Automatic annotation (TrEMBL):
GO terms for biological process: spliceosomal tri-snRNP complex assembly. Residues 72-86 have a biased composition (Acidic residues). This is PRP1 splicing factor N-terminal domain-containing protein. The keyword Signal does not apply. Residues 18-103, 194-258 are annotated as: Disordered.
């Protein structure tokens, strides 16, 4: 019968799983029966003793079987071999069975067998002759020995214990302990006597000694403290900003700092405000169109640097010495370089050493005798001393120098001496125009000056200046002859032709003789024709000098030069005229428009531009003439007819205005604009019946939406509410007559008027229904939604107003007016819901980040006063140019008493959009408090001239039926009053 495998064998008697590893029997509720009891202590001790006897070792001490260890075993029992988990004695309490003993015997046999395998017998090879090659083969060893004589003995490898012992000895020899290294020295100490011990020196701290000596030497040194260190120590406790200003009153200070300095919190806040103001000023100085223009004049920048004052007291001595050394090096390198001598002399002059400067310049003149600049600098430094002598020496070395001769002339005080110097100069340099001009200027008698100029033109016939000066001194008849000679001498000079044209204008023959026509032909023949831009400059120059006819002749003959018919000539002419208007040359602009209208007689834009020029910078008669010519050239242009009628009406010529409109009717039958203009004319003249008749005829002849709306609005202005309502209802009724729709159910203005009429009559439900129907018919009409929301807000139903605005924003996304109205609804609630208003404003600015209206609403109504200016700076960066935002910034400066800044921002807003009436009202309100009477009148006049039509408050006042007959000035004053009331309420 075969032996069962280990897992299928029967467990030994009293077997408990894990007992040998320290486990004991235990009982749980899940067990089927009670656990078996383990062996007793006597059985365990007996089993351990039996096992120890078989192994030849002492039983474990944990069970009382103690055995004294040898000294070597105690040394081997090192802490390095201790159990890392501190399980010492864990297996001591285990139960050893027969199987355990058998396993131990098996392991012991394996260890002994392995130990025997490691032991090898020694292999001894005796003397073998060299001549006998052979191969010795042994188990595990193959050594080919060819022609070798081996007399050595090869030992076999040692056992493992011997090898380990040898390795340990080798390691100890290579890594001796410190005690072993100094063992011989320690043994040598035994021979020392007491005197030897006493004579051993104290080593001391050499490193510390050197360090202390170095520190002592460093402490004895002295250095000059730089000024920067002293200034930094002085300013250590001060608060410095880039903007210096006076300390504000009522400054709040704190002395809680550890260094004892005072912290002025008021100064900190003021400095922050000044920095923000500086940034706003920088934005204000920027160009209104781009916002990025610079205020530095690139042409005059270097000139301004030349005129800058030099303060020698601010220059340190060391800097002057360094520059002096550099200039001396330059002079030594090139002593013939005049600018180096001049720079060295000026350095000495700036340093306050005028004598040294003169000496240096004298040396420079000796080294550079042919340099005009060196002699002129020497003359300047010695002015009042030896200047004349120096000038004489300079002329000796430079006889043909015009500058030196003129400087020598200026040094003389007697006129006769001046003339004498100039005569000598003419003898030496007869071709110098500058000397001849100086000589002519010295002559007090015109006849003597004329004789000098006649002689000068003979010597220098190519000088245009001398010819023109001679012609100016001659009589008109002789001037013509002089100019003819000049034209023959210098055929390429356009100045002579312009002078001839001006002479003809002076005589009165400008309309008879077209000099500029001949001039263009002659210059083209000679190849000396100027560009268009240069001719326009000459025309503007003639206008400045009063030669208006010559200016017009130049434009007439040269404006179309080098332009082809394919070019955009009309746009080019308009740009030229606008550029001249910008420079204040209105006559030149008129000449440009006149030439352009001859080329394009039916161009409506040119006639409108010419009319604007006369309206702004001309007379009424000139404006009427331009408009009359315009309507003759463009009879189908309703704008020109309306402008002419309006100008006649404003001038008080009502009959002429009616005649103009009658002609316009003939040229443009059934034109809506002309019908309404005629109605407005009669309405302003208080001709009610005629206005009604015209409107009735217009509804028959030109039944447009605007005609129906104006008809209802006119009846509403007259107080006929029922008639106006009936007209509105007729206009909103959809009918088809003659296969043509004649009513306007989708007219937002008619729906708005219907609701407003019901509001005026106190019929709130009907008004609400009208607005509701209107928003359904015209969902894109923002004013209609606003009227519906304001009706609910007026009735105190804030929830419904919110609902209306929410639906409006769904129909009109990204609309700043609807978002602003939603914010205002929350602010006007009782109590105001400021937090919700801020949330809505945040959402609004996410949808409309470029809206100046939202930024202004946020700055002025949702932010504390201290945060308005920083937020306004952020708004200016986010929004390029917005007049509403500019007005808000101006109001911020106004509240801070920065009047100049406020006025600047108000004017920027007006320039940006003159059609915004609220801006004019805010500016006038500001000027009433802080402006002059002349400034206020000027603003009112400009507002009337621009006739603004937009603006939140302006439109509400302008379209109120009660204000139908108010003038623009009266509307401006009314808007200003309502703005004051609105500001007090807010």
């Amino acid at each position: 019968m075969s032996r069962r495998d280990f897992l299928n064998q029967q467990a030994p008697e009293n077997y408990v799983a894990g007992l040998g590893r320290g486990a004991t029997g235990f009982t749980t509720r899940s067990d089927l029966g009670p656990a078996r009891d383990g062996p007793s202590a006597e059985q365990i001790q007996e089993a351990l003793a039996k096992r120890a006897q078989q192994l030849g070792t002492a039983p474990p001490t944990a069970y009382g079987a103690t055995a004294k260890k040898t000294e070597q075993e105690e040394e081997a029992d090192d802490d390095r071999f201790a159990d890392p988990d501190n399980e010492t004695g864990l297996f001591a309490s285990g139960t050893f069975t027969q199987d355990d003993d058998e396993a131990d015997r098996i392991y012991q046999d394996v260890d002994e067998k392995m130990l025997k395998r490691r032991k090898r017998p020694r292999l001894v090879l005796h003397h073998i002759p060299r001549a006998l090659p052979f191969r010795v083969e042994t188990p595990g060893l193959s050594l080919p020995l060819v022609n070798e004589q081996i007399t050595d003995v090869i030992p076999s490898p040692s056992s493992r214990e011997e090898r380990e012992r040898e390795e340990l000895e080798e390691y100890n020899r290579n890594n001796p302990k410190i005690a072993e290294q100094f063992a011989d020295l320690k043994r040598g100490l035994a021979s020392l006597t007491d005197d030897d011990w006493a004579s051993i020196p104290d080593p001391g701290d050499l490193t510390g000694k050197n360090r202390r000596a170095k520190q002592q030497r460093m402490s004895q040194r002295s250095y000059a403290v730089p000024d920067s260190v002293l200034a930094r120590a002085r300013d250590a406790g001060e608060l410095s900003t880039s903007v210096q200003d006076g300390e504000p009153d009522g400054a709040i200070t704190s002395a809680d700092n550890k260094d004892g300095t005072m912290t002025n919190f008021a100064d900190i806040g003021a400095a922050r405000d000044r920095v923000l103001q500086t940034r706003l000023d920088r934005a204000a100085k920027a160009d209104a169109g781009t916002g990025t223009a610079t205020t530095i004049d690139p042409k005059g920048y270097l000139t301004s640097l030349d005129t800058a004052e030099f303060d020698p007291s601010k220059v340190q001595l060391g800097e002057i010495e360094r520059v002096r050394e550099l200039l001396d090096s330059v002079i030594r390198t090139n002593p013939k370089h005049a600018p180096a001598w001049i720079a060295a002399a000026r350095l000495e002059e700036y340093a306050g050493k005028i004598v040294a400067a003169r000496k240096k310049m004298a040396q420079g003149c000796e080294m550079c005798p042919k340099s005009e600049d060196a002699w002129l600098e020497n003359i300047r430094l010695n002015e009042g001393h030896n200047a004349k002598i120096i000038a004489a020496n300079a002329i000796k070395n430079n006889e043909r120098s015009t500058r030196l001769w003129i400087e020598a002339m200026k040094l003389e005080t007697d006129p006769r001496a001046k003339k004498r110097v100039l005569r000598q100069a003419i003898d030496h340099i007869p071709q110098s125009v500058a000397i001849w001009k100086e000589a002519v200027n010295l002559e007090e008698d015109p006849e003597d000056a004329r004789l000098l100029l006649a002689k000068a033109t003979e010597i220098i016939p190519l000088s245009v200046e001398l010819w023109l000066a001679l012609a100016h001194l001659e009589t008109p008849e002789n001037a013509q002859a002089v100019l003819n000679k000049a034209r023959k001498a210098v055929p390429t000079s356009y100045e002579i032709w312009i002078a001839a044209a001006r002479l003809q204008e002076q005589i009165g023959n400008a309309n008879k003789v077209n000099i500029m026509n001949r001039a263009v032909k002659a210059l083209v023949k000679e190849g000396a024709m100027l560009k268009r831009e240069e001719w326009i400059e000459q025309a503007e120059k003639c206008e400045t000098e009063g030669a208006i006819l010559t200016c017009g002749a130049i434009i007439r003959e040269t404006l179309g030069w080098s332009l082809d018919e394919d070019d955009d000539r009309k746009e080019i002419f308009i740009d030229d005229a606008k550029a001249s208007i910008g420079r204040g040359k209105f006559e030149t602009a008129r000449a440009i428009y006149a030439y352009a209208l001859r080329v394009f007689p039916t161009a409506r834009s040119l006639w409108l531009a010419a009319a604007d020029l006369e309206r702004n910078h001309g007379t009424k008669q000139a404006l009427w003439q331009v408009l009359e010519k315009a309507v003759e050239a463009c009879p189908q242009s309703e704008d020109l007819w309306l402008q002419l009628a309006r100008e006649k009406w404003h001038a008080g010529q009502v009959d002429d205005a009616r005649r103009v409109l009658g002609k316009a009717f003939n040229q443009n039958p059934n034109n809506e604009e002309i019908w309404l203009a005629a109605v407005k004319l009669e309405a302003d003249a208080k001709q009610v019946d005629q206005a009604r008749e015209l409107l009735a005829t217009a509804r028959q002849e030109a039944p447009t939406e605007r005609v129906w709306y104006k008809s209802a609005a006119y009846e509403r202005q007259l107080g006929n509410i029922d008639v106006a309502l009936d007209l509105v209802l007729q206009g909103l009724t959809s009918r088809v007559m003659d296969k043509k729709e004649t009513r306007f159910p989708r007219s937002a203005k008619l729906w708005m008027m219907k609701g407003q009429i019901y509001e005026d009559k106190g019929m709130v439900p009907q008004a609400r229904e009208a607005y509701a129907q209107g928003t359904r018919q015209c969902p894109k009409s923002v004013p209609l939604w606003l009227l519906a929301a304001r009706l609910e807000q007026k009735e105190g139903i804030i929830i419904k107003a919110r609902s209306v605005l929410d639906r409006a924003r769904l129909q009109n996304p990204r609309n700043a007016e609807l978002w602003a109205e939603s914010v205002r609804v929350e602010l006007k609630a009782k109590p105001p819901n400021v937090q919700q208003a801020k949330i809505l404003m945040s959402k609004a600015q996410q949808e409309c980040p470029k809206s100046g209206l939202l930024w202004s609403e946020n700055i002025w109504n949702l932010q504390p006063r201290t945060q308005r200016k920083p937020l306004s700076l952020e708004a200016i960066k986010a929004v390029d140019n917005d007049p509403i935002l500019f007005v808000t910034v101006a109001r911020i400066f106004w509240s801070e008493r920065r009047l100049d800044k406020a006025m600047n921002w108000f004017e920027k807003a007006i320039v940006l959009d003159a059609d915004l009436g609220d801006t004019w009202a805010w500016y006038l309100k500001f000027l009433i408090q802080h402006g002059t009477e002349e400034k206020r009148e000027d603003v009112i006049a400009k507002c009337v001239a621009n006739e603004p039509k937009h603006g939140e408050v302006w439109q509400r006042v302008r379209k109120d039926p009660k204000n139908a007959y108010l003038s623009t000035k009266e509307v401006l004053l009314e808007v200003m009053q309502q703005l004051e009331q609105k500001e007090l309420i807010s």
